[in-house]
Amino acid sequence: MAKNGKEISKQPVFEKAKITQIRVEDLLNKDFLSEMKDAGIKNIPVSLFIHETGSNSVITVGHQNPKEYDEKVVHVESTNPELLSKILKVLDKFRK
Question: What's the rounded Cα separation, in Å, for the pair 42 and 19?
Answer without folding.
Answer: 25
